[in-house]
Amino acid sequence: MRALEAPAAAAAAAPAIAIAIDGLEADRGDRPVLRGLKLSVAAGEVYALLGANGAGKSTTLAALLGFLAPRAGSLAVCGRSPQAELNAVRRIVAYLPENVALYEHLSAVENVRYFLDLAGERRGADEIDAALAEVRLAADAARQRVGTYSKGMRQKTAIALALLRRAPVLLLDEPTTGLDPGATREFHRLLDALRGRGVAILMVTHDLLGAAELADRIGLLAGGRLTHEWCAAPGPARFDLAALHRGFAESTA
Amino acid sequence: MRRALVVAGGELRLLLRSRLAAIGLGALLALSAVAAWTSSAHVAREHATRAAHQAAVDRLFDDQPARHPHRVVHYGTYAHRPLGPLAAFDPGVDPYTGTTLYLEGHRQNVAAFGAARESSGLLRFGQLTPAFVLQTLAPLLLVFLGYASVARERESGGLRQLYSHGARAVDVLAGKALALGAVALAVALPAGIALVAAAASVPAEVPAALAVAAGHLLYLAAWVLAIAAISAFAGTARTALVALVAAWTVAVVVLPRVAAEYALRAEPLPSRVETDLRLQAELRELGDSHDANDPFFAEFRRRTLERYGVERIEDLPVNFRGLVSAEGETLTSRLFVEYAERLAAIQRAQRARVDAFAWATPALAVRRASMTAAGSDLENHLRFLAQAEAYRYDLIQRLNRLHADGVAYADDVQRSRDAAAERRTRVVASHWQQLPDFRFEPASPRERLAAARPALLALGGWVAALIGVLALAARRLERTA
To answer: What's the structural domain count of chain B?
Structure first.
């Protein structure tokens, strides 16, 4: 179970604000996409970033991962700038794209070991098995080729990898698209567990209900800026769904 | 470098687990092994056959009975071009050039018994040799195994996954290239063993064998780099495949033929008939050396009589007919050499034109480097022709000297009318055994290495240029993740 203790340790070392974006402006080709975005995500917080297609959600993640250089503004992940310290940032960020690109010819165990090797992180077979068990990927399935996996199983593998990497920051791009309700619930359970270990999670999604169920804060991105932001209230009705729908509808109008 | 090695390990595992890749790799390995074995066997057989034929004709020459030296001039002998030890790896132009020359007085014959000319014509499709497998088939296999290596990652979103785990584009490209390079080494292994086996029999050939190996490794490295770069530049794996197959077709199939066609047109070689007719016309002007009274040799007669201080050829201490034969041979041989050198110059000019294309396709560079270092190139054939002609001239002149010194002029004049005189013109048989046999001296490994250097440099240039292209591809890939 050491693998599961580690993120907590990492989170303890991480600053309170894990992701800080201020005045971010970025283009896709000649098209300005982000125009002064400002948001922050604290350690142990799940932040859901909503927005219409092309609003700049994925561009935000791309900027945090150093895949594109912003035109203006500042970005920091655990106090480090992706522009200045790209390798350091990538070492502390785990990233789950919409379609997790695992190697079909390898098993979950082999995929995890491969990416850990790439990241320069050494983990024992016991630790890998424990992480895969934690995400509830059956031991025999974990040794089958990923080519036979459902999307949910791939997501679990990727989460196990994030656990093993002990990354204090997790970036998710449309993680539940294409998952059935059971798999989505299971996925939310895993994210909840990561949050409990102090991992800062920035989730880009179209799934308004899913975001309302899981997130601590929800931001609505429109026209390259954050137009609305809601904080979860204590109790079962965490967000005013009507307000969320209204805001979303306005942003896409 | 550590990350590149991790990427390479992953890519190799993919190749090993892909049934299609395993079948392709297995088939080429088998083909390479078969090529190495059959080519070695063929060359060993051919070498033995030529050696046996050379020994047989030498024996036949030595076993001639006592006879007039000029009959021996016309009896002639044969020169066989032996195969170098590295011809088992790359027979070069051997199948397309004659391997045997009939050497006789007053004539310079054309080399005969080229394998391509004597075979059913199937040789035009290419001989299955280790060099053919490495130069033609191996790049194609590498294309099919590697075309998607980078494009696949981009299409699946794997690049971002790799980057987010700390890899940079340069790590990804280097890793993919290293994996493909390992496959290339595996493919080259049977051919490499054949090369080592060929060189092991003649230790002096080891440096030349190393040059052949270096040429092929550089060539395969160029392909590996090109495949990784094109896979990185292409938007999709499909585009990469089309581009790479087109590149293979142009580099390996089209350009070598275009180069040859261009060289033939730029440096036209006169036809054999045309050459022969012109040569015969010029030969006729040199008189008939069988006839000591031919007016063409009147000036020679005058100078000879003057040199010996006598009035009549009957008073000469040597046989004037032998002297005329020697003088005639000197004149005709000068003409033969002149013609041969002119043809060789045109062939070398053609080759230089083709060599220039080594900067357009590495396929021509590796062929040139391989054939030259292996000693199976055009230069080796021209060297054989020149040495055979030099031997022919020396042999005929020795016989002419024997004619002049060993046969009395009076007997020579009377031999067609007087049986006793004819018997006296016969020279004892032991003379034939004292004449040297033909032994071809190929260029030394050092000479061949020097000749192969420009082609090896061209291959090095290709690799350096493609490393540059790969670096550009890495920069672009970093931006397009």
So the answer is: 1
Shortest CA gap A176–chain B (Å): 17
ipTM of the complex: 0.81
**Which one of 3.90.550.10, 1.10.10.10, 3.40.50.300, 3.40.50.620 gives the CATH number of domain A2-101+171-252?**
3.40.50.300
- Provide the residue range defining the domain that includes B429: 2-479
CB-closest option in A106, A110, A120 to B166: A120
Bridge partners (DSSP) of residue B77 are B103
Span B188-209, pLDDT tens digits: 888 888 888 888 888 888 889 9
Among the listed residues B219, B424, B403, the one whose alpha carbon sits nearest the alpha carbon of residue B325: B403
Which residue out of B1, B19, B152, B161 would a mutagenesis test of the A interface target, given it has the greatest number of A Cβ atoms within 10 Å?
A: B161
User: Taking the model in full, what pTM does it have?
Assistant: 0.83
Q: Which two tokens stand for residue B27?
A: 């088939």
Tracing tokens 């051997």 back to the chain, one arrives at: B94
The helix (H) or strand (E) run that includes residue B207 is: helix B206-233
d(CA B90, CA B127): 10
The domain locations on chain A are: 2-101+171-252
Interface test with B, best of A61, A86, A115, A118 (most B CBs within 10 A): A118
| Alpha carbon of residue B379 to chain centroid | 7
Q: For residue range B6-43, list pLDDT tens digits in order.
A: 999 989 988 888 888 889 888 888 888 888 888 888 88
Flag whether residue B436 sits within 8 Å of chain A, measured between CB atoms: no
Of A97, A100, A103, the CB nearest to B10: A103
How close, in Å, is residue A99 to chain B by CA atoms? Answer: 8
Give A253's pLDDT tier (boundaries 50, 70, 90): low
Pairwise CB contact (< 8 Å): A118 & B17:
no
